[in-house]
Amino acid sequence: MAEGTGTTGTETPAVTTATTTPLTAEQLAAAKPVLQQQMLVDKAVASDAAAKLDQAAVSGKLTLDEDAADALIKAVDEARDHVMELWKRASDQLATPLQFGENPVAKAISARFSELAVSEDSGAAKALLDLFKVLDDISNALSKNRDTTRQADEDVQQNITKQGGPW
C-alpha cells in the first residue's frame, strides 16, 4: 500500500460501465477548432517553458551537478525517443484509410478522418512531432547547462592550481 493513498489494498475497485456514442460529422467539425486551439496553446506553453529553461541554462541561473544533469538529460532523451517511436507508429496507423465502405460518402469520411489524424498543420501526429521538438530543445538546454557547469568547474580548478593551491 502506498502511504497516504487512503486504501488498504483490500477494497474492490468500483466497476463502471461506459457507453460511447459515435460522433457525427457535424460534432467532429465543431470540435476540431477547439482542439486545434488547445493544441496551439499547449505547444506555446511548452515552447515557452523550453525557451526559459534554455535561457536559464545559458545565463547560469540553472545549475545542476553533473550526475543530476546526466540523469535528467537521459530521462528527457528517453521520453523524446519514446515520443518519436509513437509518432512513427501513429503516423503509419493513422494514415491507414478507414473501411467504412466503397461508396463516395464512406470514402469522403475516411479521407476526412485521415486528414484530421495526420494533417501537417493540425493532426494528432503533428502534435507528437511538436512534443518531440520541445523535448529535444529541453535536452539541448540541459546539455548546454551541464557543459557550461563542467567548464566553469575546470576553469576554477585551473585557477586554483595556477595560484599554487591544491585541488
Tell me about this structure.
The protein is mainly alpha-helical and 167 residues long. Helices cover 71% and strands 0% of the residues. It contains four helices and no strands. It has helices spanning 25-59, 66-94, 104-118, 124-162. The longest helix has 39 residues, at 124-162. It is elongated, with a radius of gyration of 24 Å. 10% of the residues are buried. The model is unreliable at 1-9 (pLDDT under 50).
- Compressed to H and E, one letter per element, the order equals HHHH
Helix share of residues?
Answer: over 70%
Sheet with the most strands?
none
Q: Please state the structural category.
A: mainly alpha
Task: State the separation between the terminal residues, measured CA to CA.
Answer: 48 Å
- Average the pLDDT over all residues and give the rounded result: 76
Number of alpha- plus pi-helical segments: 4
What does the overall shape look like? Answer: elongated
Strand content is under 5%
Q: Write down how many β-strands occur, each being a DSSP E stretch of 2 or more residues.
A: 0
Low-confidence stretches: 1-9
Q: Radius of gyration, Cα only, in angstroms?
A: 24 Å
